[in-house]
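Quick one: examine the sequence and fold tokens given here and explain what the tokens say about the fold. Here goes:
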Amino acid sequence: MPRDNSTSKVSRWDGHGREHVVRVRRTGVQRTISCDTCGWRRSAQFLPWLKAEEHLAEVHQATVDPSATRQPSR
């Protein structure tokens, strides 16, 4: 049976303008989230992106979504 392998990321900036990234890896139904900044890892079956956002906010005080700050090009 083939396994569906994919990776996505959640990134946020802190108050000093540093970017912090948590990667969400999927292998079949299993999801693992890991922080590029501090090495934190956790398996998460449900809502891995929400757990990634919570980690960034609580541990790194990174709450600014870089995709929300982009200006439309003219």
